[in-house]
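Proteins fold reproducibly. Next comes an illustrative record:
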Amino acid sequence: MNAETMRCPTCRASQVRSDVCRRCKSDLRLLRELAEKYAALRGRCLSNVRHNRTRAALEDARECLALRDDVETRRLLAVCELLNGNWAAARSHAVRFLAASPSDKDA
């Protein structure tokens, strides 16, 4: 799924982001809000990395992981751990990323 589409967790219908599923009429507001919060946190994390605020970036990456545990987030967290000198934690996240299936890495 990309930033403009979502998949209903109830019926698995793929659709443009909205508050209600087009097929089963499930309420999708919380899912949309979660996606928006994740995107904002990830953007703030990357901004912190660009401005060499590595501790703040790490905190943001950890918050991202609490919202969405996937390959993209593990990769972000591994980079932030490296930038903070947390070698063991960075390795742990990298191992989980590398263990993911090849199709998951494109996410």
